[in-house]
Amino acid sequence: MSRDGMLIRRISANEVDVFRRIRLEALQTEPSSFASRYEDWVDLPVEEWRQRLLDPVFVAFSRDEPVGIIGLLRQSPSKMAHRATLVMVYLRASFRGTGLAKDLLDAVVDFARGQGILQLELAVSAENPGAIGFYLREGFSEVGRIPGGLLDGGREIDDILMARRLII
Ligand SMILES: CC(C)(COP(=O)(O)OP(=O)(O)OC[C@H]1O[C@@H](n2cnc3c(N)ncnc32)[C@H](O)[C@@H]1OP(=O)(O)O)[C@@H](O)C(=O)NCCC(=O)NCCS
Fold first, then answer.
1. What structural domains and CATH numbers belong to the chain?
2. Pocket probe mutation, ligand 1, options 134, 146, 150, 159, max atoms within 8 Å of Cβ
3. How many CB atoms sit inside 10 A of residue 103's CB?
4. How confident is the model at residue 167, as a pLDDT?
5. If you ran DSSP here, which 8-state letter would residue 79 be given?
6. Residue 47 C-alpha to ligand 1 middle, in angstroms?
7. Within 13 Å, how many C-alpha atoms sit on residue 115's CB side?
8. Which residue among 4, 26, 133, 143 has its CA within the 20 to 30 Å range from the CA of 100?
9. Per residue in 78-96, pLDDT tens?
10. pLDDT tens across 18-44, in order?
11. Would you say the CB of residue 85 lies under 6 angstroms from ligand 1?
12. CB 120 within 8 A of CB 101
């Protein structure tokens, strides 16, 4: 996808710098939105970052600068390989509400369909109404809830599980 200086594409295992920049920005600016902490990722060796890029990671660029990211983790057991989980979903605040998050998600959905994936799933904090609103609008529905799924600063927060069927 390319529009007004925006570009969305899958990044390769050689693009650790891009991945590192946008992932660390996400963890630093939205610490309550993710299950990982900035401290968990900031000191990872380059090889570890590269390994994590073996699974598909899509990035939205604004004039060559990474501003959004979504990763896709496919289930490996053969009877579950039609399912994949969205991870690391993030868009820089100044680009929110523009439709770019939908464009980024659409790129991942197109890719997933091309891989024969029939269902996308994700987990989101029950205290993240903005993301939940986005997912509901994009065709996800709540399929479950893990009570106290996240433990943050000694406080338990429910994790909401969502799923979206992909019509081929
Ligand atoms: C999740 C994210 C990528 C969505 O991108 P976005 O540009 O904000 O999404 P949009 O503006 O297209 O859609 C958000 C929807 O939620 C709604 N929404 C926003 N804030 C809301 C709130 N506090 N309560 C209820 N709904 C809300 C908006 O109204 C919008 O729906 P609408 O267009 O039908 O009105 C982005 O908000 C983000 O990066 N958030 C921080 C990181 C994060 O939470 N990641 C998810 C981890 S699971």
1. 2-165 (3.40.630.30)
2. 134
3. 16
4. 79
5. G
6. 33
7. 19
8. 143
9. 999 999 999 999 999 999 9
10. 999 999 999 999 999 999 999 999 999
11. no
12. no
